[in-house]
Specification:
The protein has 430 residues and is of the alpha/beta class. The chain is built from nine helices and 19 strands. The strands form four sheets. Strands 10-11-9-12-13-14 form a six-stranded mixed beta sheet, sandwiched between helices. Bound molecules: guanosine-5'-triphosphate (GTP) and magnesium ion. The site of magnesium ion has 5 residues, from helix 1.
């Protein structure tokens, strides 16, 4: 069963660097003093055991990180936008669907603490202070901030069950799953109706948890009698077991003992898992004191602290209380911490990043002796500087050399006199 969500992420833009000069009395223009823009915040997913569904990611949701602030005078850098950390359930797959419906898998957050930068914040632009050189004491260039990444994402989560329904065949496990979730398992009045585990999501207030229904267990299940053994593995990773028993049949306590013995034979993990007893089919009770004496009998056999709930999946009596109790028990038991055997010394996994894109082309040939510069860094420089000013343009062209753009222009066939376009500025190559 897969839970899925479609959202948009928008990282913060970098702040602009600025052109500024120190003011000194009687000096028309002091040294360069324009500060850098701050970096934009990134959006980072963190795998957390405290979240177990994708419920909070509503359709069409847009997650945004703040932008960096522009640089200031006196070489002051702008504040960076803070990264936005978003907790996602352990096991979440992240697909980038910006360019295709199917999408590209960019990360699999399968361990507690794994991190994935899903939208990287834009770098702050450099202020003119950074462009000062020994030969240029009056730098007129500054960079605009880089745009933050924008992505459409699809999140997929293979659900892990929180509660396992166990018990003898025909007790009403599947009926209960159907009563508390939207799942539609097969229900019938014969043993071994359920042949494979099925999962249901139980919504509770703003939270949700997942319940798994497995085939009925019988004596000898741990040795493979009936269908049991294979499916016990499915309940090994749950946090709570709900032991379902048909209360209208005689020998309730004995039947529970029998199944618990099977669990113990199968694994200690299962035997030690917190268990609540769910007595089903109370609508069939004939003796009006039956619930009372069964309750006493069960507490005497399994301890006063044992949670015992009486319900009828058929009439829904006690179903709300059952959900409340499941939630209450789950709250007492934290989600399992990732296994140290997986090499997780602390719970902060590696930072995964989307695969880097190829080095972008820097020049487009438009024909008619016209060329467009599309180099990202050069574009930011053009946006952050006043290229209408001839002196600035000279510095800009020199800077294009440092960025490797001049080489690409040469390779594209640019000659002195050719028209070069960048952003919305057009100039003659010199
Ligand atoms: N009267 C009554 N019948 C119930 C109740 N709950 C379940 N049943 C019936 O009991 C039978 C068995 O129910 P299931 O939900 O299939 O039981 P199960 O535990 O999933 O059985 P297996 O999958 O075979 O292990 C069905 O005929 C249900 O309609 C109940 O609360 N009252
Ligand atoms: Mg069933």
């Amino acid at each position: 069963m897969i839970d899925s969500a479609q959202i948009t992420v928008q990282a913060g833009n970098g702040g602009n660097g600025i052109v500024n000069f120190r003011r000194e009395a009687f000096v028309p223009r002091g040294g360069p003093a324009g500060g850098d823009g701050g970096d934009g915040g990134s959006i980072i997913f963190v795998a957390a055991n405290s979240v177990n569904t994708l419920l909070k990611f509503q359709r069409g949701m847009v997650l945004k990180a703040p932008s960096g602030e522009p640089g200031g005078s006196a070489k002051k850098s702008g504040h960076s936008g803070e990264d936005v950390l978003v907790e996602v359930p352990v096991g979440t797959e992240v697909w980038d669907t910006t360019n295709s419906k199917k999408g590209v898998l960019i990360g699999d957050l399968d361990k507690e603490g794994d991190r994935l930068v899903v939208a990287k914040g834009g770098q702050g632009g450099l202020g003119n202070t950074r462009f000062a050189t020994s030969t240029n004491q009056v730098p007129m260039l500054a960079e605009a901030g880089e745009e933050g990444e924008h992505r459409e994402l699809r999140l997929n989560l293979k659900l892990l069950a929180d509660v396992g329904l166990i018990g003898m065949p025909n007790g009403g496990k599947s009926s209960i799953l159907a009563a508390i979730s939207a799942a539609k398992p097969k229900i019938a009045n014969y043993p071994f109706t359920t042949l494979e585990p099925s999962l249901g999501v139980v919504y509770f207030e703003l939270d949700a948890f997942v319940v798994v229904d497995i085939p009925g267990l019988i004596e000898g299940a741990h040795e493979g009698v009936g269908l049991g053994i294979e499916f016990l593995k499915h309940v090994e990773r749950t946090r709570v077991l709900a032991h379902v028993v048909d209360g209208a049949e005689p020998g309730v306590v004995e039947r529970i003992h029998t199944i618990n013995e099977e669990l113990r034979q199968f694994s200690e993990v299962l035997a030690d898992k917190p268990q609540m007893i769910v007595v089903n089919k109370i609508d069939l009770f004939e003796d009006e004191n039956q619930q009372e004496w069964l309750d006493d009998e069960l507490h005497a056999a399994f301890g006063d602290d044992t949670t015992v709930i009486f319900i009828s999946a058929a009439t829904r009596a006690g179903i709300d209380q059952l959900i409340l109790e499941m939630r209450r028990l789950l709250n007492l038991i934290p989600r399992p911490i990732a296994d140290p055997a997986n090499g997780l010394a602390d719970h902060r996994g590696p930072v995964l990043r989307p695969a880097p894109v190829d080095r972008p082309r820097s020049v487009e040939t438009l024909g008619d002796d016209k060329f467009r510069i599309i180099h990202p860094r050069a574009l930011r420089l053009a946006r952050g500087s006043n290229l209408d000013d001839w002196a600035v343009l000279v510095q800009f062209q020199k800077r294009l050399g440092d960025l490797g753009v001049t080489r690409d222009l040469d390779a594209a066939g640019v000659m002195p006199g050719s028209t070069v376009i960048i952003d919305d500025v057009e100039f003659e190559w010199d």
